[in-house]
Amino acid sequence: MTLAPTSDPAPAPPDGTVAPVVDLRGVSRRFGTVDALLDLDLSVPSGTITVLLGPNGAGKTTATRIITGALEPHHGEVRVFGLDPATHGEEVRRRCGVVSAKPALYDRLTGHANLAYSAELYGLGRGPGVDERTRLALARSVLHDPQLLLFDEPTSGLDPESSHAVLEMIKSMAGGGVTVIMCTHLLLEAEGLAQQVVVLEGGTDLVAGAPRELTRRFWPASVVRLDAEDRSQLARVVGMPGVRDAETVGDGLKELAGMVGDGIDAPLGSGPVDVQLEDPDGVADLVEALVRSGVRLTRVEPRIPTLEDLYFAVRRSRAQSHTVLADDGGRQLTPTSNGAGS
Amino acid sequence: MTAPATPVARPTGRVNASVKPPIRLKPSRVWTIARTELKQLIEARDFWMPMMILGGIFFLVIPTILLFAITSIGNIHAVHQISQAVQLLPAKARAAVRGKSEQGQTAYALAVFLLAPVAVVVPLTISTAVGASTIVGERERGTGEFLAHSPASVHEIYLGKLIASVVPGYVTTIVGFGLYSLIVNTLVGPEVGGWFFPTTQWWVLMLWVVPPFVLLTLSVVLRLSARVKSTAAAQQASGLVTLPLIMIAYGEATGAVYGGNWVGIAVGAVVWFLALLGLWRGMKAVTRGRLLGVADGI
Fold it and tell me: For chain A, what is the domain count?
């Protein structure tokens, strides 16, 4: 689709909602024979934190480069602040701050000189001096008061304290109205930070949305984790009133197996069990029923699925649906059972 | 945003392939890039020291030894041989040689005619060394990512890098030229009746012929720097590509000095044309993809 260039931001949608700061539609980018991005759709509302999740090679970095216009897509439509970065790159980039995965600074320049260089390129005066590498790169990205911040694995190589400080800073900047897009493969890092999550794989967006909304989509029922002195007795939850589904929680190695899409197929009773309930208030009834049936419970833990759970569920679901949909060319993720609710 | 389960139709055709933004240059931004590059060069003592030594050898050491030997040691065999070589100069150049004694004439011919190509070799060598690493160096250090995401246009980046590559070579040459003039006038002046250097041909050479040769060479070197994978490869390739250019420049500079002012001006005009053409084409070699190191072919 070819777009006519425009110097004005796109008009606000007629329904009164605010136009997204970043809007990618069907964006593809190929390097040689490799599809770095394939039909990527991404919409980032103003003033939110969106986290792009995905393994190495998923297309996170390429997506950020497309957003600033550093790279042009081969297919698809890109709008940032309502502008096409291919034709209005300077305007778009002037309003963006970017921290790349390897925050490279000019080694022969002092910290002050690095900031001054950035300030002058962005049309400001000379910047203040700071002496720490990552902080410098972060400072460099916000020096010109950007409206869109793109962080490509901003905590890469940092110690835990510095990582925490960086994430807090990102949170505080988003609180100030700046739109943030952050790429990471560290799920814990995104937890509690992301207002929108986009899971990428093979350059394609598998799923996107607010973490809570996605969690509800994948786990519509509430989940409680149970353990018992005699784990074989836990198999009795199957068929009890109000129980939608149950699956054994694997140990670390089995969960690792889940990462690659095998799922956890251990028989009920070989470990703790996650039970999906139709009614969120049904935990007490379930516990009572189990106790009556002679099960001596050692653990009853209502569970709120984490971003990590969501990520692996999405990828498992993708792996399963990929085979089903491959024949008719479909690519869209459809949540399924086996941990990813319908 | 990810859509429902319907397969997504893939758009076809290259987006915006025909819509290119107009070339806009902000001189202040070009200068910022050039100045920052130069600042880094100044900090790189291990880089500029050899360059200074090179300039010193060509402009100071060799002329001083040669001219001092000719004017002070007297009628030795070597002086006689050089004076024979002077007879091989074109008639117009031979007629311009000043000096009452054989020593004076030999020293004059050496200073004005035989050492002229030095003025071309020094800036070309230095600027090639700087230019070869300027773009591929950004990519190797990872700072290309910063530049690619910055508001600076690729044309501004190119021109900034070009200026930063021209300045070290040309400034070294101008400073060397000044010192060379002092040496020549001090050592040869008494033999030919006073200070005589620079001659008009040398002014034409330094201000009109040398600059376009430097630019022409850099138009090739910067293209190489944008395309190759490493600084080492850029320097090797630049050496190979610029060697013929240095030889041509050597010959043309000699011709410009021997042939009189109009020859120098004509040679300069042709090289200026070629240099500007080369620079215009070379500007296209710098892309954001190449700064990032992801452009096809890198």
Answer: 2
pLDDT of residue B8: 33
Percent of chain A surpassing pLDDT 70 = 79
Res. A134 pLDDT band, cuts 50 70 90: low
φ/ψ of residue A274, rounded to 5:
-95, 125
CATH number at residue A280: 3.30.70
Contact A41 B8 (CB under 8 A): yes
Closest partner residue to B149 (CB to CB) among A93, A117, A208 is: A93
The distance of A234 to chain B (nearest Cα, Å) reads 36
**In terms of CA atoms, which chain B residue is nearest residue A93?**
B151
CB contact under 8 A, B1 and A208: yes
pLDDT digits (tens, 9 = 90+) for B254-266: 666 666 677 788 8
ipTM reported for the complex, 2 dp? 0.80
Cα separation, B134 vs A106, whole angstroms:
13
Which of the pair, A84 or B251, is modelled with greater confidence?
A84
Write down which residue in A149, A180, A209 finishes a domain. Answer: A209
B234 CA to centre of own chain: 16
Distance CA A324, CA A330 (A): 9
Q: What is the C-alpha radius of gyration for chain B, rounded to an integer number of angstroms?
A: 24
CA B110/CA B62 separation, integer angstroms: 11
Q: What is the pTM of this model?
A: 0.72
Domain encompassing residue A79: 22-209
Do the Cβ atoms of A119 and A127 come closer than 8 Å?
yes
Q: What is d(CA A267, CA A259) in angstroms, rounded to the nearest whole number?
A: 19
Task: Give CA–CA dist B189/A113, Å, rounded.
Answer: 47
DSSP state of B161: H
Whether residue A123 sits in one domain with residue A86:
yes
List the strands of the sheet with A75-80, edge to edge.
Answer: A34-44, A22-31, A75-80
